[in-house]
Amino acid sequence: MTTGQPAAVQIELEGGPTGLPPEIRRQWVPPDLPKVKIPYNGGYEHFERLDVEESGRLVFRWTYRSRIAE
Prior knowledge:
By secondary structure, the chain is mostly beta strands. It has one domain (9-67). Helix content is 6%, strand content 56%. It has one helix spanning 22-25; strands spanning 9-14, 26-29, 35-40, 43-54, 57-67. InterPro entries: DUF5988.
């Protein structure tokens, strides 16, 4: 039996575009990940980790949108 950090934790993405599907808003990521970048509608939605845990999930809040470079 090993101890330490789990391989992945479930997170919830808060804020950002209202059309972002629920299956994207809840996903599994490495436990030490500080930011998440989601490709969406011709760009990227950027989310940053909060220090608060809600309902056993880590919450990442939307910070900004960037365009995909061509």
